[in-house]
Design brief:
By secondary structure, this protein is of the alpha+beta class. It has 3 helices and 5 strands; from the N terminus they run ααβαββββ. Helix content is 32%, strand content 23%.
């Protein structure tokens, strides 16, 4: 059996084509799949520290946790909710249909409100992807995760 050597120019072209395909696949997965890009806060202390950095005091001992499948963020009420998220620098749309962790912590220093106020944080793979501060009453309010100032 005789082996014919591949010309150097042809071999370089083949390597360049393979690298281009691999780069294209890598870029596809980076932009198409919802890789966590937000701040990592898998531990309770990280969540309370994040809220403190925004100026919110919370009762970490009363934190609740649940896992949900995030509904489609492109329609209905979730579309409006996601618009609020986008104003604050988050976007839940890439996580539609994904299982996310939801942490709820009581806020103890909301000014001018006598009822219960909570912070809700949405995490995917331990990274923050969105959330809000809201009052737990019918005449309440909801704001995005932003600094008190």
């Amino acid at each position: 059996m005789r082996v014919y050597p591949v010309e150097r120019g042809r071999r370089n072209s083949l390597c360049a084509a393979i690298l281009a395909v691999l780069l294209g696949i890598g870029l596809f997965f980076y932009y198409a799949l919802p890789f966590p890009r937000g701040q990592k806060m898998a531990a309770r202390e990280e969540r309370t520290a994040y809220l403190a950095s925004l100026g919110w005091e919370c009762s970490a001992g009363a934190e609740t946790h649940k896992r949900i499948k995030l509904p489609d963020c492109r329609t209905g009420g979730m579309k409006e909710y996601n618009e609020m998220q986008r104003v604050c620098g988050y976007d839940l749309a890439p996580y539609s249909g994904k299982t996310v962790d939801v942490y709820t912590l009581p806020i103890t220093n909301y000014p001018g409100w006598t009822g219960s106020v909570y912070a809700t944080l949405y995490l995917h793979r331990g990274h923050l992807i969105g959330g809000d501060i809201h009052a737990a009453s019918l005449d309440g309010f909801m704001i995005g995760l932003e600094s008190r100032s």
